[in-house]
Specification:
With 227 residues, the chain is an alpha/beta fold. It has seven helices and twelve strands. Helix content is 25%, strand content 31%.
Length: 227
């Protein structure tokens, strides 16, 4: 699977992952080219849980509409995994829609300092969520892509939602590191791999997510940062 300019013209795409999990993709321009940003959502009997928000502000409402049309369920909760706009851009929009929005305290501090949208509810520690018959947890492995990057783990399905911390198995670099910690990046990724050693899926933001070698590949790239 590759992301092309033709794909970017679609603005929003939704593909099934497994069971009631879906990957949605929006696009934005970075250095003059359209770049994909993957997010995920989970359909439960109580409503839909959204992981990160669209990067493209024109797709905040179309995503809600598409989910409602496809699943006949409203989005009830949204969790953003770090403070950059490709994750948080829609937080205030969704908050105004009555959706419960969450980030960590650290993400909120960085969002405030950088004038980014902020969530209504704040997580003070790694947290386990129970929604209908589903359970998932947040985990902060340490600094890497940003100071605040968290991941989400879905134990039953063994989905590791890694966001921007992990890059795709074919990625050439770790991407933008201007807000990252290059010294800690490799150790953070190794901690993540030790915590969740055998995921069935690893969902990354800006690359193809089908190859679960993405985490090991990212570790190897991070190790080269300090050489």
């Amino acid at each position: 699977m590759s992301f092309t300019r033709a794909s970017a013209q679609e603005k929003l795409s939704i593909v099934p992952l497994t069971g009631n999990y879906y990957i949605y993709t929006t696009y934005n321009l970075y250095q003059g080219s359209p770049v994909p940003a993957n997010g995920m959502y989970l359909v439960t009997k109580r409503g839909v849980v959204l992981f990160d928000t669209p990067w493209d502000s024109t797709q905040f409402q179309p995503l809600l509409d598409s989910i409602e049309q496809k699943h006949h369920q409203p989005v009830i909760l949204c969790i953003a995994t770090h403070w950059h706009a490709d994750k948080t851009a829609g937080l205030e929009y969704y908050r105004r829609k009555g959706i419960k929005t969450y980030t960590t305290v650290l993400t909120d501090e960085l969002s405030k300092a950088n004038h980014q949208p902020r969530a209504e509810y704040l997580l003070t520690k790694d947290t386990v969520f129970h929604t209908s018959s589903y359970t998932f947890e947040t985990f902060y492995p340490g600094e890497g892509h940003t100071k605040d990057n968290i991941v989400l783990w879905f134990p039953k399905e063994k989905i590791l939602y890694a966001g921007c911390l992990v890059k795709g198995a074919e990625a050439k670099t770790l991407g933008f590191l201007g807000d990252g910690n290059t010294a800690a990046y490799a150790s953070t990724l190794k901690k993540l791999k030790a915590k969740y050693p055998h995921p069935n899926f690893i969902i990354v933001t800006h690359s193809d997510w089908h190859d679960t070698n993405s985490l090991q590949h990212s570790i190897e790239m991070a190790e080269r940062l300090n050489k």
